[in-house]
Amino acid sequence: MIRVTLFEIGSFLLPFVLFMIWRRLSSRAPDAGRMPTLRLAAAGAASAIVMMLVLIVLDANRAGHAGERYVPPQNVDGRIIPGHFVPADDDVDEDDGDDGDGGDDEPSTGGGADDPQ
Asked: According to the UniProt entry, which residue ranges have a biased composition of type Acidic residues (predicted)?
């Protein structure tokens, strides 16, 4: 969790740091009054392409594939088992929908107030 938080903070601060570096470097340049639009556009396009590639790689490593299902994190004997993907036909220890009444999940047919018996 701390890694995710640090990644988000770093992602937020990166543009400000790059802007600060650019300002310091451009103030020392002899032609500081002229805006290098072509260089800035190329740097922005390159940054966008790199970010797209990073997102594609992260998605490919973390996402499930066709024919898999996600098993959410579970607390087993006081230990947290992280969420993971399993093949769809595997039987995994999960809540089977039993509501604790010991019967099947079909509606009851007797004993109701609307029952004419």
From this structure: 88-107
